[in-house]
Write a structure and sequence with these properties.
4 helices
């Protein structure tokens, strides 16, 4: 089961890294000197920055989950040391904390 999850997490990390690469390519595209266009580009850059930030956070969570799998403590709450419920892990497979500690 954990090997299957590790594969899924690794595939998701690759997808997110590709998305980040696409975001960087979008940033690298030429910029228009028209002021109205520049305002639109700034808004686009803010959206792209937010998407990149979310992708990096998800990559970190997935990487941490893979490390916990490798260390044998996947599914154990990082705060209290109790097992994370299987239902929570089904909904959020990279969860670091049980529902009580997450609240």
């Amino acid at each position: 089961m954990t090997e299957q999850l590790k594969t899924q997490f690794t595939q998701r990390i690759v997808e997110l890294q590709k998305r980040i690469g696409a975001i960087h390519r979008d940033f690298a595209e030429g910029r228009d000197s028209d002021s109205a266009e520049q305002a639109g580009e700034r808004e686009n850059e803010e959206v792209l920055n937010a998407l990149e930030s979310e992708a990096k956070i998800e990559i970190q969570h997935l990487s941490n989950a893979i490390t916990r799998m490798d260390n044998g403590n996947y599914g154990v709450c990082q705060a209290c040391g109790e097992d994370i419920s299987p239902k929570r892990l089904q909904v959020q497979p990279a969860a670091e904390n049980c529902i009580q500690c997450a609240e």
